[in-house]
Amino acid sequence: MFSRWVTASVRPGNSTHQLTQNNLYLQGIILFVLINIIWGTTFPLIERIVISLSPSVLIATRFAVAALFFSVNLRWLNALLLHDSLILGILFLPI
């Protein structure tokens, strides 16, 4: 499914292919660690913030911040992505 969105211009026999694979692996590890740090710090922060803010204000603020971050990705939105997202949404709806 993802191969339709990502086009690889590096051939497997080329030496730059190994360099690219190593870079992608390292980038994946770095992003994984960063996500874990962000995920782990949200629990203590929310515990402190919920004392001073109401839950509805906290949820509205979290949605606003998430909307700002995800609005950058709207330029890559196309019919294929919408189609696949709709199928995944329908499949995971009962869960």
Question: Top keywords for this entry?
Answer:
about 75% helix; mainly alpha; 3 helices; extended; about 100 residues; disordered N terminus
SSE topology sketch:
Blueprint: H1 15-52, H2 55-71, H3 79-92
How would you characterize this protein structure?
The protein has 95 residues and is an all-alpha fold. 73% of the residues lie in helices and 0% in strands. The radius of gyration is 19 Å and the shape is extended.
* DSSP summary: helix tally: 3
**Gyration radius, in Å:** 19 Å
User: Main sheet?
Assistant: none
Order of helices and strands: HHH
Unreliable spans: 1-10
Structural class: mainly alpha
Strand runs, count: 0
Share in helix: over 70%
Distance between the ends: 21 Å
Q: Describe the oligomeric state of these chains in a short phrase.
A: single chain
What sort of overall outline do the alpha carbons produce when their principal axes are compared? extended
Strand content: under 5%
Brief summary of the model shown:
Helices cover 73% and strands 0% of the residues.
